[in-house]
Protein: RNA methyltransferase
Amino acid sequence: MSEITQHERLTGPVIHSPQSKRVREAAKLVRRSWRTKTRQFLAEGPQAVREALSARAEAVSGAGADDRVDASPIRLVDLFATAAAADRHPDILELAERAGTPVRQIDPALLAQIADTEASQGLLAVCEFLDVDLSSAISSGSRLVVVLSQVRDPGNAGTVLRVADAAGADAVVYTGSSVDVYNPRTVRATAGSLFHLPVVTGADLAEVTERGRASGMQVLAADAHPPVHDLHSPWATGLDLTRPTMWVFGNEAWGLPEADRQLCDAAVAIPIYGRAESLNLATAAGICIYETARNVRL
Structure:
């Protein structure tokens, strides 16, 4: 094995051994049971790591002289990088310095064993869970909240969170029957948006919709079964999309069960103008979320 040179901007010594405690603990985070036990997850790749560090650095710089840095809601337990990744992303090293997070140099082959992707990009962070409780995520000032109920695909779950972030949503809520938001595939699909807005996990849909109404929001089910409002002509049936809105999206295969739909105030369908039988969940969610985002800004 060729010797790996210590990078001048990375914390040494270089981690070579798969028996390293840090490496073993990180590797086990691909399992949901271990993530739940430790309340930690993996953020992989430059985009996710950059956003985690940016949020951490902002919290640190905003702390008063007497505040502890560890009070930040974004905590990075460990940050690993290869020498090549450090050279490619000097901005990430600068962010890490601002955030007070040491970047540990690791053997590329060893990092590839920990990473969940086939081709590691040389950066991997171990972060603490950052979900919040329902009462702090949804308030009387909330204008747009997205709820995923029984959504099982990690890519869809992450993509919808990313869209919600882009549309300026106040929070994203995952019910207890949905995929784990800290699944590595879900985290990657959020493209860093997981670190931008409040996220609630393991929620009960009845409690969520009740909270939404109590906060002054209308609760809309994205559902095509009649009776429904047409998303592109809501005024025809009296639906006001300029109101604060909570959108509820169901499972990729069967949508929302009748019991879940009954928890909502109304159902809304996206018109299909071509021959497609339906829309992918993430695509449908994006259309609905942005339609509300546009209207609440009118």
